[in-house]
Design goal:
- One of its GO terms (cellular component) is plasma membrane.
- Keywords: Cell membrane, Leucine-rich repeat, Membrane, Repeat, Signal, Transmembrane, Transmembrane helix.
- Its main location: membrane.
- The chain has 8 helices and 25 strands.
- By secondary structure, it is α/β, with parallel strands linked by helices.
- The strands form 6 sheets. The protein has a 14-stranded mixed sheet with strand order 1-2-3-5-7-8-9-10-11-13-15-16-17-19, with no helix packed on it. A 3-stranded mixed sheet has the order 23-25-24, with no helix packed on it. Strands 4-6 form a two-stranded parallel sheet.
Length: about 500
């Protein structure tokens, strides 16, 4: 009997508990169904995505569905993030809170949303974050804190974010990065620290970022960059250092950085380039040196630019003297993307001229790569190619090496000159031939006259030999209107001459 009573009691208890559980399950289902059908006022709901942008919210709306996976609260008037504010939205995958007035973020504000993968807090007024603020979102892939007022990062700020791939800290006013700040961000591929006030880096700054592919450090206050600070960034593809105060870039202990493909050093104060830096970057493809203070580039440096496909050299202080010949020769042979409008700053008579045009009278000689060689002007071959003593020009002038464009131009000029010479010679020979054929009789008459004149000079005495031969001048005059008989007499020498010696001899027919 007692056993029967106990069995009945336990049965009743089990039935009551089962009924209670069914009631709770029904209530949960009703709440879920009602939540899916609700959408906060001034918001737009698309399935499990809720858009509450630009609605002047001062707090997070309360009646957001618990199944919400994406929530956007951009361009509102939120001022603070309270503890567990999103804990009831444990299905959230992304949360956009940018362009608000948020200045306070509680260290437990993001507790309860462990599935969150993207968090955007940019363009707010956040000046400080607790070092455990993001410990509740270990699955975060992208975190954007740019355009806030963070002046420092707390030690261990990102220690729980082992899956983080993109971190934006641009435009915050950061002056220093804590030691090993990103040590646990093993999956980080993109890091933006641009537009801050950083002026020094250490070897431990980027420790642990073995997968980092793109690093932005532009618009900071660096004055010197040593590539030895980045030896552990073995997967980096792009390094952006533009618009700092960099005067010197060196390598430190040499090591080959095989992965780096893009380097931006524009807008700095670099006056010279260390060839060792580029010898350690064998796969560099894009180089930007615009707006620095470069006057020339050494032969060793351009010789290390083996893999470049794009280069920008505009806005420097180029000296178009002998020192620029190595760079000019390299640019003429470079077939990638380049800015050909680089301008000379000196010497004074070449200021404002394009470098490639100002140096067109010089070519690069492999025999003396540091000295300019005057560009020879090809001419038509002639007897004037020798000097007054009949000595040919020095053979050293033939040692210059012409560029392909100059060789083509010289070859064309030689061809044109040769053709002109051929036609001129042909024309002269033609005129001579026609003249000989047409005036054969006159030619014979002149030849006979010449022979008779020589015979008469031999037979006739020379009474004036005592006179100074330097003072004597011989003239022969005849009447052009004479008759043909007179011409015949002149040719046959049968007429007499009357001569008068008075310092000269005059003959009249």
């Amino acid at each position: 009997h007692e056993l029967h009573s106990m069995w009945q009691t336990s049965s009743v208890t089990c039935i009551k508990r089962l009924a209670y559980l069914l009631l709770l399950l029904t209530s949960f289902l009703l709440l879920t169904c009602s939540g899916e059908k609700t959408c906060p006022n001034s918001c737009r709901c698309e399935g499990k995505i809720v858009h509450c942008d630009s609605a002047s919210f001062m707090d997070v709306p309360e009646n957001i569905s618990v199944t919400c996976q994406g929530l956007s609260l951009r361009n509102n008037d939120l001022h603070s993030m309270l503890p567990y504010q999103f804990a009831h939205l444990n299905q959230l995958l992304w949360l956009y809170l940018d362009h608000n007035q948020i200045s306070i973020v509680d260290s437990r504000a993001f507790q309860g949303i462990r599935r969150l993968k993207e968090l955007i807090l940019s363009t707010n007024k956040i000046s400080q974050l607790h070092n455990s603020t993001f410990h509740g979102v270990p699955n975060l892939r992208s975190l954007d804190l740019s355009y806030n007022k963070l002046q420092e990062l707390q030690p261990g700020q990102f220690h729980s974010l082992r899956k983080l791939q993109n971190l934006h800290l641009r435009a915050n006013g950061l002056t220093v990065i804590p030691l090993r700040a990103f040590i646990e961000c093993r999956s980080l591929e993109f890091l933006d620290l641009g537009y801050n006030r950083l002026h020094v880096l250490t070897r431990t700054t980027f420790l642990g970022l073995s997968r980092l592919m793109e690093l932005h450090l532009e618009h900071n206050q660096f004055s010197r960059i040593n590539f030895f600070l980045f030896p552990r960034l073995g997967n980096l593809r792009g390094l952006y250092l533009q618009w700092n105060r960099i005067r010197v870039v060196n390598q430190g202990l040499p090591w080959i950085w095989h992965t780096l493909q893009k380097l931006d050093l524009s807008g700095n104060e670099i006056q010279s380039l260390d060839p060792v830096v580029f010898q350690c970057l064998p796969n560099l493809q894009v180089l930007n040196l615009e707006s620095n203070k470069l006057a020339n580039v050494s032969h060793e440096t351009v010789a290390a630019w083996l893999s470049l496909t794009t280069i920008n050299l505009a806005g420097n202080m180029w000296n178009c003297g002998p020192g620029i010949c190595s760079l000019v020769a390299w640019l003429r042979n470079f077939h990638g993307t380049k800015d050909t409008s680089i301008i000379c700053s000196s010497p004074k008579h070449l200021q404002g001229e394009k470098v490639l045009e100002a140096t067109r009278n010089y070519i690069y000689s492999p025999l003396s790569p540091h000295l300019p060689q005057p560009l020879p002007h090809p001419t038509i071959p002639s007897f004037t190619d020798t000097d007054t003593r009949g000595t040919p020009p020095p053979s050293n002038s033939l040692l210059v090496t012409l560029s392909p464009e100059q060789e083509n131009l010289s070859f064309h000029k030689v061809i044109v000159g040769g053709v002109a010479l051929f036609f001129s010679t042909s024309l002269i020979l033609t005129v001579v031939y026609v003249s000989c054929r047409r005036y054969t009789g006159a030619t014979r008459l002149l030849q006979q006259h010449s022979v008779v004149g020589r015979k008469r000079r031999k037979k006739s005495p020379e009474p004036e030999q005592n006179l100074s031969s330097q003072m004597q001048e011989y003239y022969m005059s005849y009447n052009p209107a004479a008759t043909p008989e007179a011409m015949d007499v002149l040719a046959n020498g049968t007429s007499t001459c009357t001569c008068t010696i008075s310092g000269s001899r005059e003959c009249e027919v």
